[in-house]
Amino acid sequence: MDESTEQDCVERARRGDPAAVGLLYSRYWRAARAAAYGVTGDIALAEDAASEAFCAALEHLSDLRDATRFGPWLRTIVVRVARRLQRIRTVPDETRRGESSFALAATSQAEERETTLMLHEAVGSLSETLREAIGLFYFEGYSIEEAAQFLDVPSGTVKRRLHEGRRRLRKAVEQILRGDKPMDPERERTLQRLKELLDEDGNPRDFPEVMRLGLSLRPPPVELLDAVRKKWLSQRVAVLKQDPQREQKFRAMMQRYHGPSRRVQDPNHPIGAAAQAIRSALPQFEEYRLETDQVIQSMLNANKSVPVPPALAEGRPGSFLNVTRGMLLLRPDGSMLSMREFLTGKPPANSDQGKASRRSCIAEVIDLFWNRADGIELRAVEELLTRLAVTVALGISTHILSYDHPHYRAALVLQLGDIVLPAAFGGVLYRRPETPEGIGSAHVRLYLEAWATARTGQTFEPEDLTLALDHLTE
Questions:
Q1: 417, 286: one domain
Q2: Residues 313, 404 share a domain
Q3: 101 shares a domain with 74
Q4: Angle between the 144-151 and 155-178 helix axes, to the nearest 10 degrees?
Q5: Which of the residues 50, 157, 297, 329 could staple to 32 if both were Cys, CB 3.0 to 4.6 A apart?
Q6: Following DSSP, what letter does each residue of 309-336 receive, concatenated?
Q7: 237 and 248 share a domain?
Q8: CA–CA separation, 110 vs 115, rounded Å?
Q9: Distances (CA, A) of 349 to 87, 209, 212, 287
């Protein structure tokens, strides 16, 4: 890129041209990451610093006097951000990390895992407001002020919730430090009820009730629910395979509703343009394609996991992006209904009143997956989405809310402006048994209809899928 081209690119980026922003990312992302790595010596921290620096540079392009000097100007910002992040990592911050009484010692990795699980279970027994405050402050990297902003409450409220949460957790922590497992009678009763709903071979006698009870626990019994889901799916697949006509209809529906649509693949369509802008804004994410036939085969073989990139399957660090379509449950006002709310809500989801209270849709989706060797905090997920909104949604106002979902240790939902349809949801995943020690995993699902609406002002709605889903579950 010569000086005249770079000057033109910077000028267009100042006017909010997403293509110009994408060119700047493509040109300077690797250089920015390399400069940050020179400061930190840590590739994950370098990516964070480069992303934050790019966001700052784009927000303050008006401060750049010479538009032909974007590269050197960006490098100055990168180095400053990298040094700040390095200091945060190396200098203990008591206001962020909390009191030392929560730094629980363990004599082995197995004991450490058990201690962490017990502490999370103890936190899970708190009320939702106390659990949110404790989780954000002690587990997810937020300061009191940042947690207050995230929860949209005064800092004093967060401090009171932390105080009350610590008071209620004190007995549990004392038991953990003594090596005893704190007992939550309600959790134990729920787990016992779950066992009663399984037969001798572990098959669910009442699948919806098993899932409802399991998802009501915090943290949920992930391994148990996965085993139950696979067995239930095996039973359904066996019935499906006995009827070739139904199996063919299932395959036809999957072919129609999985994978990128024509409008996503069309760069001239607003949804396709939004997808391309997101790709350009996330150069660190490697794109991969999950073929529809692979998904169908994985679903027809209930014991086989859905194919994912090898790095993710093996728990190695990496960042990946997949363009596809996904189911979305909406309330009558267009806001998102979580799967946990769907399964545990009243009235029962299978009643006429329950069906009238939600709408099943298929949305254009970009899935982001990433593993990091030094773990992931929810704060990092929020920062990524905020930077993405600045770049792709052209500076439209954002609103981020805490979100409860059984697959995530901590999660959030992103809204753009006054658009009711969510722009994204996701967060930090619970660690799975097969994941190597020290690896943190995160997932975010981006709904392209909301991003296209934000960029154009024209309303885009997901496709109604109620009839297709009803047909599938006949």
A1: yes
A2: yes
A3: no
A4: 110
A5: 50
A6: -HHHHTT--EEEEEEEEEEEEE-TTS-B
A7: no
A8: 9
A9: 50, 11, 11, 36
Cis peptide before 221 (omega within 30 of 0): no
Torsion sign (Cα): 326, 330, 336, 339? negative
* CA atoms 412, 417, 422, 424: torsion sign: negative
H helices present in 407-473, as ranges: 448-456, 466-472
CA 358 to chain centre: 22
**Both structure tokens of 382:** 């929020």
- To which residue do tokens 């409008």 refer? 263
Radius of gyration of the chain (CA): 24
Mean pLDDT of successive 10-residue stretches along the chain, which has 474 residues: 70 78 76 76 74 81 84 87 76 40 39 54 72 77 78 85 80 59 67 79 78 72 75 77 78 72 91 94 86 65 58 81 86 75 52 57 91 83 89 84 79 92 90 72 94 94 65 40
DSSP readout, 340-400? Answer: HHHHH-SS-TTSHHHHHT-EEEEEEEEEEEEEETT---HHHHHHHHHHHHHHHSTT--EEE
Same domain, 165 and 299: no
List alpha helices for 152-221, DSSP H.
Answer: 155-178, 185-196, 207-215
Q: Report which of 96, 99, 12 is spatially closest to residue 61, judged by C-alpha positions.
A: 12
Ordered DSSP codes for 91-103: S--HHHH--GGG-
How does DSSP classify residue 307? P
CATH number for position 299:
3.30.930
Number of domains in the chain: 4
Pair 59, 112 in one domain: no
Number of Cβ within 10 Å of residue 90's Cβ equals 8
Residue 33: CATH number of its domain:
1.10.1740.10
| Distance (Å, whole) CA 441 – CA 151 | 23
| Best CA proximity match to 48, nearest among 97, 16, 86, 91 | 86
Give the range of the structural domain holding residue 336, as residue numbers without chain letter.
Answer: 244-472
Q: Which two tokens stand for residue 462?
A: 């997901």
Whole-angstrom distance, CA of residue 256 vs CA of residue 380: 35
Instruction: Give the global pTM.
Output: 0.65
DSSP, collapsed to helix, strand or coil, labels residue 106 as coil
Token look-up 């909104």 returns 389
